[in-house]
Write a structure and sequence with these properties.
CATH class of the largest domain: Alpha Beta
CATH architecture of the largest domain: 3-Layer(bba) Sandwich
Largest sheet: 7 strands, mixed
Structural class: alpha/beta
Helix content: 25-40%
Strand content: 15-25%
Number of domains: 3
Distance between the termini: 77 Å
Number of strands: 22
Shape: globular
């Protein structure tokens, strides 16, 4: 006979949105349960997304540095050899350690985790089915409030169906057992560029195929063009304005033939692995949304929510990738905290104008706020200032002088509208910029703030000064 338990809050999903929401709700005095279908908590981000990809990016960067740059610093490395199994084992250990920490965090905050697939069976009802499918082992949970935090999955493309080995998603591309001789990538977004960087550094020939005229379409145009130039110099081949109509695996399983189309002609590309990374879609199938009366946006497949993250059904909330906005782990976490606070009767909210985004290529790319194209489209009067890392002492000492900082401010109020960084440590530098946007700071505020010397952040200070042409280095 199925068991039944009651909670103040039940959360379906333990990714960056779900587990953070659970901890915050517990801190606010709620009795909380989480439902997780996978064997480990952490969702896509910790298990097959952000964390394993960054572990491989760092490892591959070390390999690349040893091959190409350590000699410049007087470090003689001798004959280098890649041990891919060790690299993969390290990645798995990083994932294991972090997911175990999440489990301990939930347990330490008295959050009860139910293993199985969660499905809404009514307004305040969640059914948890075990992997065995035995109805007798089903658990029925009752809750005053429910948060849906199920995340997303890779988008599939007709004619490019995943087979898990030759035509793959980002999940399989994180666990190749050998370095592909030629890796084809459909999609020039964040995921494709990061995974392409990993395997290019490890020796693959990499070809990125993108329908649009530029890569990383959401980036500031100047930054996107600069990133493409740097990645091209690193050996990644780009085919822009090109559509993939179909891909066929050879009978011997050794190669994949990719059929390409442009406005002018048709072509083919032969590779041994094809990564399809054209985006992700909300993971809502099987959630039982209909039984709970929850509406879905037919255009995007996402769940509409109000200012308190509540769906069209009172008492049921949604956060993260299944709602509107960028599919970013930190966005989901911010929404998880805010949703828990709203459920507790507190004024939880998220400032969507101050959400950073990062591409972990090298050089890194990080941004917050509006791009120059967006500012122009909205007809906002603006000033912009840029400063190259070539002009900073720390970048020269490190030998990492590629890239620049670009700051955009309102022409009349001087309020910062957006900051875009391509260069070393951009992922860490953007935090200061996010804080500035959150507090409504001006470019003068950053320009007059004393930054340590020598540091990469001095480039931000100089770019802020250049907005008003007050930098001593501005031309």
């Amino acid at each position: 006979m199925a068991t039944k338990e009651s909670f103040d809050l039940v959360i379906i999903g333990t990714g960056p949105g779900g587990y953070v929401a659970a901890v915050r709700a517990s801190q606010l005095g709620m009795k909380v349960a989480c439902v997780e279908k996978e064997s480990r908590p952490g969702g896509v981000c910790l298990n097959v997304g952000c964390i394993p990809s960054k572990a491989l990016l760092d490892s591959s960067e070390y390999f690349h540095l040893a091959q190409n740059h350590l000699a410049d610093h007087g470090v003689q490395t001798g004959r280098l050899r890649l041990n891919l199994p060790v690299m993969m084992a390290r990645k798995e250990q990083v994932v294991k350690d972090l997911t175990e920490n999440v489990g301990k965090l939930l347990a330490g905050n008295k959050v009860q985790v139910f293993q199985g697939t969660g499905r809404l069976t009514g307004k305040n009802q969640v059914e948890v089915k075990s992997d065995t499918g035995n109805p007798a082992k089903s658990i029925h949970l009752e809750a005053s409030a429910i948060i849906l935090a199920t995340g997303s999955e890779p988008v599939t493309v007709p004619g490019l169906e995943f087979d898990g080995r030759h035509i793959v998603s980002s999940t399989e591309a994180l666990s190749f057992d050998t370095v592909p001789k030629h890796l084809g990538i459909v999609g020039g977004g964040y995921i494709g560029l990061e995974l392409g960087s990993i395997w290019r550094r490890l020796g693959s020939k990499v070809t990125v195929i993108e329908m649009l005229p530029k890569i990383a379409a959401t980036l500031d145009g100047q930054v996107a063009r600069t990133l493409k130039r740097f990645l091209t110099q690193q050996g990644i081949d780009f085919r822009l304005k090109t559509r993939v109509s179909e891909a066929k695996v050879a009978k011997n399983g050794a190669t994949v033939k990719v059929f390409l189309e442009t406005e002018k002609d048709k072509d083919t590309l032969t590779c041994d692995r094809l990564l399809v990374a054209v985006g992700r879609k909300p993971l809502t199938q099987g959630l039982g949304l209909e039984s709970a009366g929850i509406e879905i946006d037919p255009r995007t497949g996402r769940i509409p929510v109000d200012a308190s993250f509540q769906t069209t059904t009172p008492g049921i909330y949604a956060i993260g990738d299944i709602t509107e906005g960028p599919m970013l782990a930190h966005k989901a976490s911010a929404e998880g905290i805010a949703a828990a606070e709203c459920i507790a009767g507190l004024p939880g909210e998220v400032n969507y104008d101050a959400i950073p985004s990062v591409i972990y290529t090298w050089p890194e790319v990080a941004s917050v706020g509006l791009t120059e194209d967006e500012v122009k489209k909205r007809e906002i009067p603006y000033c912009s200032g840029t400063y190259p890392f070539l002009g900073t002492g720390r970048a020269r000492c490190m030998g990492e002088t590629d890239g620049f900082v670009k700051l955009i401010a309102h022409a009349r109020t001087d309020r910062i509208l957006g900051v875009h960084i391509i260069g070393p440590r951009a992922a860490d530098m953007i935090a200061e910029c996010v804080l500035a946007v959150e507090f409504g700071a001006s470019s003068e505020d950053i320009a007059r703030t004393i930054h340590g010397h020598p540091t990469f952040s001095e480039a931000l200070m100089e770019a802020a000064g250049a907005v008003r042409k007050c930098s001593i280095y501005a031309s």
